């Protein structure tokens, strides 16, 4: 399948999931995340879920990170430059839903991509080699290109791996992908 066909397939599969299934699988993904050797790190980047796209609910992982007193940043997307700013999440961080339906910080302390030890990456599909397909705008590929080489990239998916996805040179492979059933290591 082409990337476009895979995007369409997984957007349809997500749309078919009930809210209860979303909650159950998201909680299972967060519990599976606890198996990873990442909890001794300091700086984490996590996306806030877009409810209309039925993304993995990251609130559960966010609660784990906050419970472990980690420095957590959330993205703010600029659709003109196709770049993201990474804002430190604090108690007083005001979150608003953008015109694109993305929950984002209004303002705050920006953190450099070089700071991150772990990045939780949104995706539509991934394969058994760690290649992933996002929404096609390249926000995360541009961001990951600025991160340190040792930064861990972790995908979150409601679905299991495809056998193979044809990837492009700009795509950044994952180190791990977490589903409700298992943790994939690449």
Automatic annotation (TrEMBL):
Keyword terms, alphabetized: ATP-binding, Ligase, Magnesium, Metal-binding, Nucleotide-binding
Positions with a binding annotation for ATP: 3-7, 132-140
GO molecular function: 5-formyltetrahydrofolate cyclo-ligase activity; ATP binding; metal ion binding
Pfam families the UniProt entry points to: 5-FTHF_cyc-lig
Binding site for substrate: 50, 55
UniProt key word Magnesium: yes
Catalytic activity: (6S)-5-formyl-5,6,7,8-tetrahydrofolate + ATP = (6R)-5,10-methenyltetrahydrofolate + ADP + phosphate
Transmembrane parts of this sequence: none
EC number: 6.3.3.2
Cofactor: Mg(2+)
Domain of life the protein comes from: Bacteria
Keyword ATP-binding attributed: yes
One GO biological process term: tetrahydrofolate interconversion
Similarity field: Belongs to the 5-formyltetrahydrofolate cyclo-ligase family.
Protein name: 5-formyltetrahydrofolate cyclo-ligase
Lineage start: Bacteria, Pseudomonadati, Bacteroidota, Flavobacteriia, Flavobacteriales
């Amino acid at each position: 399948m082409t990337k476009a066909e895979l995007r369409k397939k997984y957007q349809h599969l997500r749309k078919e999931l009930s809210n209860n299934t979303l909650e159950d699988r998201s909680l299972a993904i967060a519990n599976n995340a606890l198996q990873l050797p990442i909890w001794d790190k300091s700086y984490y980047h996590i996306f806030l879920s877009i409810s209309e796209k039925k993304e993995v609910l990251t609130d559960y992982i966010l609660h784990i990170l906050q419970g472990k007193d980690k420095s957590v940043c959330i993205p703010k997307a600029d659709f003109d430059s196709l770049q993201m700013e990474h804002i430190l999440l604090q108690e007083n961080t005001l979150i608003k839903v953008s015109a694109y339906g993305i929950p984002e910080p209004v303002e705050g302390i920006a953190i450099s991509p070089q700071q991150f030890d772990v990045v939780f990456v949104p995706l539509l599909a991934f394969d058994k080699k760690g290649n992933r397909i996002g929404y096609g705008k390249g926000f995360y590929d541009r961001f990951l290109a600025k991160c340190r080489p040792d930064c861990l990239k972790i995908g979150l998916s409601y679905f299991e791996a495809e056998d193979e996805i044809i990837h492009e040179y700009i795509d950044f492979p994952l180190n791990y992908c977490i589903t409700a059933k298992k943790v994939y290591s690449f």
